[in-house]
Amino acid sequence: MAIMLGTILINQAIIQYFLFDKKNDSHLIDIGGKQRMLSQRIDQLSFRNVVLQKDNHDQLTSTLNTWKTAQLAIMNGNEDLKISKITNKDTYSKLNSGLKIINNIDSIIRKGNLNDASLTLINKNVDEFLPLMENIVNDLTKITDKKLSNIIIIEIILALLTIIIIFVEFQLIIKPSYNKILSQNNRLREIAWKQSHELRKPIATILGISNAIQNNASMSTKEKNKCLSYLFKATEELDQVTHEIVNKTS
Question: Are 98 and 70 in contact (CB under 8 A)?
């Protein structure tokens, strides 16, 4: 029973850990998707700055900082964003390539005085970042799916283990106990049947002698003493049988 309880507790612990990990992965994928949106936002703001002559340098810088901070958070983890560090080396390498692109755009924007050449460079870097980030999000999704497959396999193994434990406990504990109780019941039934027949004999003798004494008023003293002697023997026999029943059932 303790083993089965331990298996159930382990099962629940694994499920809770997976749910926590799944929440972290989902948040990570969500931030990864937003990175693509931020890159396009940088592209749009740069276009407005150069082509439409919009003075939005502060907005560009703020968006760029958010973009870069999120990229670093995905790579190294971030407690405020509640995401864990990327441990897959291939995915981390791709994220690092994305960070280099962000740094390239950062250096262009921070120089100020954006022009057509700057806009072309920003567009080129964003065009490189988008498919790269798409690939990273796909990697993160595959990692999550693999974790799900692993947890399903573990759940199946634990379920089979629980069934095996229940079967073993039934065979080694429950079944022998049941058979023992059944055997005791059968033994008690046999004793009851046998003793009931043994009890009938002295009881019948006692009843017969009592009836003879009661119905025969003219019985002599000798006959009465003889009947009382039989009655005493029958009583002793009854006491002995009763004593045996108590001993056999205790």
Answer: no
What is the SS3 assignment for the chain?
CHHHHHHHHHHHHHHHHHHHHHHHHHHHHHHHHHHHHHHHHHHHHHHHHHCCCCCCHHHHHHHHHHHHHHHHHHHHCECCCCECCCCCHHHHHHHHHHHHHHHHHHHHHHCCCCCHHHHHHHHHHHHHHHHHHHHHHHHHHHHHHHHHHHHHHHHHHHHHHHHHHHHHHHHHHHHHHHHHHHHHHHHHHHHHHHHHHHHHHHHHHHHHHHHHHHHCCCCCHHHHHHHHHHHHHHHHHHHHHHHHHHHHHC
Tens of pLDDT, residue by residue over 142-172, are 988 888 888 888 888 888 888 888 888 778 8
Do 30 and 79 meet the contact criterion of CB atoms below 8 Å apart?
Answer: no
pTM above 0.90, yes or no: no
